[in-house]
Amino acid sequence: MDIVTHAISGALIAYALPQRPKVRFGILFFALAACVPDLDILFCTTPALFLNLHRGISHSIFVAPLLALLLALLAYPLRRASTPQAFSLRTLWLLSLVCLLVHIALDCITTYGTMIFLPFSDFRVRLNAVFIVDVFLTLPLLVLFCICAFKRIGCRKIACAGLVWMVLYPGLCLALSSWAGHSLAGNLRAQGRTIHELVLLPDFFTPLYWRALYVEEQDGHNVEQEQSISGLGSPRGPACAHTPLSREEILNLSAQSAICRDFFDLMLMPVVRPLSEHHRKAALTALSFLPMDTQGQDTARQSSAGTGHVMHPIADHVARELKFLLVYDLRFGSGLTLGRKLLGSRPRANIPFRLMVVLDRDNTVLLERIVFSDARKDSGWKSPTPPAPQTFGQWLLGLH
């Protein structure tokens, strides 16, 4: 969920209280407390850390009580004896915990996935109820917050109405999603089509529009279809076909590379397509710095730093045997023309999460690169690092 919605949720919690400490930054504290879990982004300095930390340990329901205690200790003016209507430490801890849990709940209703059970499980909770920036959720909350900010009397009831809307709206979206999904599945079965998996995702202006992703069997092959549908499940135009990445390919890549393993933990329904010519040339250049034997096959899994940056040009017949793949998730997109235009207007508009790999004829990973365009994270081309056993410190922080 976007940071504005998180901040407003904390502010409305403060306005809903029967009384609060008479300090100027009281409302601001609650707004900031509701945003604290997203400070994990400050530590996501590499793509690998982004995969492990974002919506990771800071969003855990088991860490939230400790984080709430830290916030309560830091907010000394709110519990200072000389402050009128001061909170006790216990009350301040409890209210901070509520702000954190509301943040976690708002993230869970989106499609990204939130690891709320860390460090005991890295399962990502995603309810697919609302779009990452949902105007029908955020705009009413923003209006109610502005009324509370400028109205001196009766703001508690208004704030409570906002908190109720934060519960009712996602529930309504989940109900409509179930209805639309069953309607679409019934239409597909009536057409005699074989569907193995169907996931309904929120689109811009949910619940008026949804995106359906489903795997369909066609002539003995699986094809992943992307279909824009109305709020009641009626198809909007033709579906777009994509090539899904098979379970065997996912397991193979994950077994060879820690980055690939973490990437697929985030993905919902990954698809694959060939790399562009530009990226192929860049990959071949990077591959040229790896040591090659006399047959022109890669024989080492070490970075170019270990070769003294000596270039070994790739023979044409070797290059023709390599596989250059681009893997991404259809979850991050829109079936609406306006939605695609809005996504295309982003400062670094591109597929948000991209994994690029180079494999030899034996499906061995030679090079990998992971790019998160919106977060400005790019690993660059490098040799894969095999998954390693998790240390206790990594387990405690929710890291692989």
Structure notes:
This is Metal-dependent hydrolase. GO terms for molecular function: hydrolase activity. It comes from Candidatus Desulfovibrio intestinipullorum. The chain has helices at residues 3-15, 26-33, 47-53, 64-74, 76-79, 89-108, 135-150, 155-190, 247-256, 258-266, 277-287, 316-319, 337-344, 392-396; strands at 195-202, 209-218, 221-230, 240-242, 270-274, 323-329, 353-359, 365-372, 377-378. It has 400 residues and is α+β, with helices and mostly antiparallel strands. It has 14 helices and 9 strands. A hairpin with a 5-residue loop joins strand 7 (353-359) and strand 8. The chain is 40% helix and 15% strand. The strands form 2 sheets. It has a 5-stranded antiparallel sheet with strand order 5-6-7-8-9, with helices on both faces. A 4-stranded antiparallel sheet has the order 1-2-3-4, with helices on one face. The two termini are 25 Å apart.
Rg value:
25 Å
Unreliable runs: 293-308
Tally of separate helices? 14
- Tell me roughly what share of residues is in helical segments: 40-55%
Biggest sheet architecture: 5 strands, antiparallel
Average pLDDT taken over every residue: 89
N-to-C series of helices and strands:
HHHHHHHHEEEEHHEHHEHEEEH
Q: Approximately what portion of the residues adopt beta-strand conformation? A: 15-25%
What topology, given as strand order, has the largest sheet? 5-6-7-8-9
GO molecular function, one term: hydrolase activity
Transmembrane segments: 27-51, 57-79, 91-117, 129-150, 162-181
Pfam family, one: YdjM
Protein name: Metal-dependent hydrolase
